[in-house]
Amino acid sequence: MSVLVWVEHDGKAVKDATLAAVTAAARLGEVEALVAGQGVDGVAQEAAKIAGVTKVLVADDASLGHALAENVAPLVVELMGSRDAFVAPATTTGKNIAPRVAALLDVMQISEVLSVESADTFTRPIYAGNAIATVQSKDGKKVLTIRGTAFEKAAAEGGSAAIEQVSAKGDQGLSSFEGSEIAQNARPELTSAKIIVSGGRALGSEEQFHQLIDPLADALGAGVGASRAAVDAGYAPNDYQVGQTGKIVAPEVYVAVGISGAIQHLAGMKDSKTIIAINKDEDAPIFQVADLGLVGDLFKVVPELTEKLAV
Amino acid sequence: MKVLVPVKRVLDYNVKPRVKADGTGVDLANVKMSMNPFDEIAVEEAIRLKDKGVTEIVVVSIGELKAQETLRTALAMGADRAILITSEEKVEPLGVAKLLKAVVDEEKPDLVILGKQAIDDDNNQTGQMLAGLLGVGQATFASKVELTADSVTVTREVDGGLETEKLKLPAVVTTDLRLNEPRYASLPNIMKAKSKPLATKTAAEYGVDVSPRLTTLKVTEPGKRQAGVKVADVDELVMKLKAMGVAK
């Protein structure tokens, strides 16, 4: 089976999510990687080094600069004429493009794949991760999005794939990119961080969120996350949100501070290796999944913890 | 200007899903069902666009007859009329997108607003598939929608921040949580909604093949986490963190 993998990148470097998608794709067959964008030579060079990638297809065109689904999908559909599966990481870009490709190929997509059981059988979470479905596809071609935290990352070095240029299909004239606001964050990226410190509504305000959560995260070299309640209350930006509707993370250590543990939040972090909960309510549902729990007032406990870790 | 809003009847988001013992699915007998939360946001957005040139809001649902209740809820919120497409079998996103395309071909809306995903199947596909089948622009994960006579400008929630796209109409938009706060239907509006038009059709009437492409072999409970321990104080937590190698 020949598999085309969508390379997630920011125009400069390959994003980690791609590496997990390559691992999943390699379970299906021979992996080719598609780098689409504008001025993406560097990204293509990097993609060619990923272990397991046999060929890198590069589509470099102004119309692909911001990965608009309307312009990317026709390109992927054409490339899929001679390939059997399209695999994208379940990032916002992957989720935006893959279903459009699937519809144009007249196949059902399988979203957020957790495991590849065979060439046509996969597992995926449903109901906010409260159930795992094993599904078999009858479609001739497969379109999958991969949950990054469910697969090991392929080695970023060691491969030596050939690079081949392919031509873009041009601007379809349906949509245009107007601008972006990317949050400045010097800390590790949430979806790839080894440790995450996450704050909830109990933090009380944006100031207290930063005063308490940020130093603790820095003491641990951790990324910073938030519950939906904290984001909705304006304590943290949208892209900090961990949960069913935010990011799905599975770090080595997840520290939940002042988070009660609603099922929608647990859906985003319950595959973390170790969960640590700090909450003053000893009956909070978060303690049912936490490996280590500390019942206490976070306004006392967190500064003390930060101080003792910094020593 | 006409807006079409597809809505789905799903297990209420507050209910903890139970996997059936025989592994065939999630038990939906005698549990509270509601409108998918993202679809409520879609209905709300359509209503808010009413003072910006939108003259008619048509809501559509696909599924069993009981989905009528979901449509009535949308009508009570402020939608003008409803279409129910009944199907004995569960229809997958691809089938739903094909049926919606048939509805769009008939109704010719300027804008289709869907939820970004349904909280039962968690697929996040239907809007994108519909846009692809229609050959129109798509803006997924919308947190802000600005409508003009011939275009829609949408701020999208993407990994790392926000992104703004402009689409030529007709177009498809899918809603994210922060787009708006859906209104509650008032009692008078619930009563009024009972007399608003609701057309019932079948998938076969649209001549669309909705036979499933995926077979669910089994549904299981996710792995349970081991019960943890509670530490007495910060010192003990620090000690454990050090033992794990997380802290120096």
Automatic annotation (TrEMBL), chain A:
InterPro entries hit by this protein: DHS-like_NAD/FAD-binding_dom, ETF_a/b_N, ETF_a/FixB, ETF_alpha_N, ETF_asu_C, Rossmann-like_a/b/a_fold
One of the GO biological process terms: fatty acid beta-oxidation using acyl-CoA dehydrogenase
Binding site for FAD: 201, 227-228, 241-245, 258-265, 279
Named cofactor requirement(s): FAD
Iron-sulfur in keyword set: no
Family as reported in the entry's similarity comment: Belongs to the ETF alpha-subunit/FixB family.
Subunit structure: Heterodimer of an alpha and a beta subunit.
Name of the protein this chain belongs to: Electron transfer flavoprotein subunit alpha
Originating organism: Sphingomonas aracearum
Automatic annotation (TrEMBL), chain B:
Annotated coiled-coil segments of the chain: none
Electron transfer flavoprotein alpha/beta-subunit N-terminal domain: residues covered: 23-210
Listed InterPro entries: ETF_a/b_N (IPR014730), ETF_b (IPR012255), ETF_beta_N (IPR033948), Rossmann-like_a/b/a_fold (IPR014729)
Pfam families hit by this protein: ETF (PF01012)
Entry keywords, A to Z: Electron transport, Transport
GO molecular function: electron transfer activity
Gene Ontology biological process: carboxylic acid catabolic process
CDD domains per the UniProt record, alphabetical: ETF_beta (cd01714)
Cofactor (UniProt): AMP
Family indicated by similarity: Belongs to the ETF beta-subunit/FixA family.
Function (record text): The electron transfer flavoprotein serves as a specific electron acceptor for other dehydrogenases. It transfers the electrons to the main respiratory chain via ETF-ubiquinone oxidoreductase (ETF dehydrogenase).
Record note on quaternary structure: Heterodimer of an alpha and a beta subunit.
This protein's name: Electron transfer flavoprotein subunit beta
